[in-house]
Amino acid sequence: MSKAMTPEQIARFYSGIPYVYCVRAEFGTYTEHFVKGGYVAIGYGMSGDLSQVTTREELAALYRAAHPDQTSNIVVGQQVGQISRFLLEIKAGDYVITPAADTEWLHYGVMADDTSYYHHAGDDGCPYRQRRKVNWSPDRLRRSDFSVPFQNTIRSSLTVFAVSQRDEFLEKIGKQAPGERKAAAVYDPHRVVLEQVLELDDKEFEILITHLLTALGFEGSEHTGKVHDGGVDATGELNVANLAKVRVFVQAKRYKLGTKITANVVKDLRKSIPRDGQGAFITTADFQTAASDIASDPNFPRIGLINGNQLVDLLVEHWNDIPNEFQERLGLRPGLVRA
């Protein structure tokens, strides 16, 4: 299937730098079908073979014919946009991510080639007929290992969308684009902020995290850190529009940059989390892989892990909600650069 490329697609084709897309599998329902079958797929009520389609306008006409009762131009535009992205924009060598049913994990692979589209007419358990071949990696990625902006992107309600944090993804899988991010080694904004955060003493840091919980939407956030506190330094309750309530028990610890927190440290926090609550471990450092496994053990209350870089991401996102005395104490201004 030969399709015309946009100027942007031509430019990135010759640059040799792949794009990264996410294609959902109905909340992970068909993720195993995708991975075992070597494909990604979409439906949108488009049951016919689309191999001869070359433009978005053709797709729009076909979509309207398949959905005569859909009169909203906004809805039609959004749905056709996703089909077009799947069929016409994703190119050979681009990476594709699909979340597992357990959304902590992400599967990823490489689009096989530009003729990878095929129409599947049989019944293999996946109802989506429009498919493209993917060479899936045998490895999975843990969503919580990525930055907060990346995690926010993956939460998009769209089925097919581009992931703007391409460089971060490529770096995570060891495929960093040639010549890119070299300048980042000269100035590391995350490190600069963390060095300022480490100027706080233990109690100041715990109180900062309590303010951050409030900024994130937790009600009744309270600093509880004291001797024999069982590792819990702050608590709060998240009420999501009365749809759900989550009580969280937080351990907030300052550690030297480069430190890797062990599984046993995370496991100790578990003892202080009620069965109907959840835990969170927020630190300036990072976590060993075994610690991440302990935190997501389905047989115990979940413990969310926020490492130093992710903490900085959250502070950037909610800086204006942090009390002025902490902004001044940290010596940072909006954008989290030194004042």
Structure write-up:
The chain has 339 residues and is α/β, with parallel strands linked by helices. It has twelve helices and 16 strands. It is elongated, with a radius of gyration of 23 Å.
Descriptive terms for the model:
elongated; 5-stranded mixed β-sheet; 7-stranded mixed β-sheet; 2 domains; 339 residues; ph1033 like fold; 24% strand; 12 helices; Trna Endonuclease, Chain: A, domain 1; alpha/beta
**How many structurally independent domains?**
2
* CATH fold-level topology of the largest domain: ph1033 like fold
Mean pLDDT: 86
CATH class of the largest domain: Alpha Beta
Q: Give the number of DSSP strands.
A: 16
Please sum up the structure shown.
The chain has 339 residues and is an alpha/beta fold. It has helices at residues 7-15, 31-37, 56-66, 73-89, 148-154, 166-172, 189-197, 202-215, 263-270, 289-295, 308-318, 324-330; strands at 20-23, 39-42, 95-99, 105-111, 117-119, 130-142, 160-162, 218-223, 234-240, 244-253, 260-261, 278-283, 286-287, 303-306, 332-333, 337-338.
